[in-house]
Amino acid sequence: MASERLNSILNHFKMPSGLAAVTSRNPDDIVVTFAARTPLTKAFKGGLKDTPVDYLLMQLFQHVREKSRIDPKLVEDISVGNVNEPHIAYKARAAVLAAGFPNSTAVSSVNRFCSSGMMAIQGIANQISSGSIEIGLAAGVESMSRTPDLAPELAPEILSASQEAGDCLQPMGQTSENVGKDFNVPREAQDQFAAKSYQKAEHAQKSGWFDEEIVPITTKVKDPKSGEVKQVTVTADDGIRYGTTFESLSKIRPAFPKWGDKSTGGNSSQVTDGGAAVLLMKRSTAEKLGQPILAKFCGSTVVGLAPRIMGIGPSLAIPKLLGKFGLTKDDIDIFEINEAFASMAVYCLRELGLEEEKVNPRGGAIALGHPLGATGARQAATGLAEMRRQRKKVLVTSMCVGTGQGMAALWVNEVL
């Protein structure tokens, strides 16, 4: 009798399992009522290169407020994922207030490298689930033009205590070459994957698929030659290289010859400026307010792994996520896997046995760019828009994470 009671208690707290449970609709579900991103533009060259992060965030938050038609007084907390921006907590709070949210809306920042935008989403979802807040906004932003990534110094005692501690400082290009070498991912396979990313992104842009997910940003851009400053409205991604082929990529010299000869500027993610935001609340709240329910956010998970091969994170995070929800890869309609480097993307697809047509249908970070803190939220905006276009149901987003981590999240499209 006691064991039966214990099992009953454990089952009460057990996560719902299987496709039917994941796609079911309940009042306490965490749902997305709005998701959008800015254009992704080339760092140092593109349309957002002279745009401060706080100004970019302000316009993004204004779009959220206006397009979602949410009463800003109801948004209790905003979490902003970011990696390298100095004083981001000050800038995010100021941007929220400048965007028309009241001072009763709280703001915080979060950093887990490339998954920072996803961490912001999970953090807001956790607060809603626990009853701390009813409505929250998760965002991610990065200006790689204005804040180049500089690795810190570690104490000598840290470096002498653990080889893996020292490996946390390995440049990302080095970790890409480690993956290519350790797991036999040849240059040819990387260039073939990268060419397809560009081709998919080119097709998506020419077809207007990105229009639904992008909000325009009006800013000022300084001409590097004349010094003239012009006001422009940036409406589209500018890193997509039309006409890219395997043959053209195969001619590019290795980017990291010190560590290997497989990763290049053509088969690695672009350094990029941009941001994204996702509005979250319970289903019951959305229905009460008449907010459109775009998707259900089911949850996420994180993993750790050897820092020197950080790129393979999705190959560990995705199975862990699917296991938690009682799903298989065949239950998933679309995978958005961040293309930090083609080496890691090729390995992850091979290791997980994924069908290529299910992965990054609009192209990935190799073609679109990877604004570090924004990518987790950007994947949600892109993936959910593609789910609506294809009328598909279940989405997984995932990324590798600097210093040897991985993250994956599960979503259910409700606009069919």
Automatic annotation (TrEMBL):
GO terms for cellular component: peroxisome. It comes from the Eukaryota. GO terms for biological process: fatty acid beta-oxidation; phenylacetate catabolic process. Pfam families: Thiolase_C, Thiolase_N. Residues 30-284 form the Thiolase N-terminal domain. The active site is at C114, H370, C400. One of its GO terms (molecular function) is acetyl-CoA C-acyltransferase activity. Its cofactor is K(+). It catalyses: an acyl-CoA + acetyl-CoA = a 3-oxoacyl-CoA + CoA. Keywords: Acyltransferase, Potassium, Transferase. Residues 293-410 form the Thiolase C-terminal domain. Pathway: Lipid metabolism; fatty acid metabolism. PANTHER family: 3-KETOACYL-COA THIOLASE, PEROXISOMAL, ACETYL-COA C-ACETYLTRANSFERASE. NCBIfam families: AcCoA-C-Actrans. Belongs to the thiolase-like superfamily. Thiolase family. This is (Perigord truffle) hypothetical protein.
